[in-house]
Design goal:
Low-confidence stretches: 1-14, 19-30, 194-207
Radius of gyration: 29 Å
Largest sheet: none
Number of domains: 2
Number of strands: 0
Strand content: under 5%
Order of helices and strands: HHHHHHHHHHHH
Structural class: mainly alpha
Number of helices: 12
Shape: rod-shaped
């Protein structure tokens, strides 16, 4: 296998940045040693787990082109940390094929999925959110709480699935990415947790309220008395 130690150097990275179609202020920053090390690590892992990579990349020019496309894709998608590419690298290690993935395919693999964080897929999450108003169960995952808070129960109840599902799925994907990168979304969990607990504590207070129990018993006696009178009339 070809030596991968010096696959990336400052000159090539700067050239890739200059060739990027859309460059932001962040993209125009000076390439650092840390950036070079980052791209080197990604390239090494991709090639090491794609034994047949030399079929796609024939010669130094092809390797440079793939590398520069990868750098531009990182810049355009604001991928700057190994945590962001770890999903893509895991996917490469699991793939049965030995061939090199396209840059676009690899970037797609780097996007966190519901499956990656152990929460329901978007369809099941949408159904759970729609049923929440009528369900006694708490929401099963913080990501659902986030999406439900953003779209609102009112919108889910008063608009069609065709209108609300695409918007919910977009919000849900936002939540999945936030959760994957370390945000517990606790404020959204607490928002729905308080709603449930508030109802339960209110019910518990009524059950222990002597005046409420007295009124409840008197109401029950009146109903029973009315039923007895109707029965007597029907027998007469």
């Amino acid at each position: 296998m070809k030596d991968m130690k010096n696959l990336v150097n400052p000159a090539n990275l700067n050239q890739a940045m200059q060739q990027a179609d859309q460059t932001s202020k962040q993209q125009k920053q000076v390439i650092t040693e840390q950036t070079i090390e980052f791209v080197n690590r990604v390239m090494k892992t991709i090639l090491a787990n794609s034994p047949a990579w030399s079929i796609s990349l024939k010669g130094t020019e092809s390797i440079n082109d793939y590398r520069q496309q990868l750098v531009k894709a990182f810049l355009e998608n604001e991928i700057t940390q190994m945590a962001q590419v770890e999903l893509g690298l895991k996917r490469i290690r699991k793939e049965p094929t030995n061939f090199l993935p396209s840059v676009g395919q690899f970037i797609g693999w780097c996007v966190p999925t519901a499956e990656a964080i152990g929460c329901p897929d978007s369809t099941d999450a949408y159904k759970e959110a729609c049923r929440y108003r009528y369900s006694k169960k708490p929401l099963s995952h913080p990501c659902i709480a986030y999406a439900l808070a953003k779209i609102s129960m009112y919108e889910l109840s008063n608009k069609s699935e065709a209108q609300t599902k695409p918007r919910f799925e977009k919000l849900y994907q936002q939540a999945v990415e936030l959760f994957y990168y370390g945000d517990p979304l606790q404020e959204f969990v607490e928002r729905f947790k308080r709603e449930v607990n508030h109802d339960l504590s209110k019910l518990a207070d009524l059950r222990g309220d002597d005046d409420y129990q007295q009124r409840n018993q008197e109401s029950a006696k009146k109903h029973l008395s009315a039923i007895r009178k109707k029965l007597k009339k029907s027998r007469a």
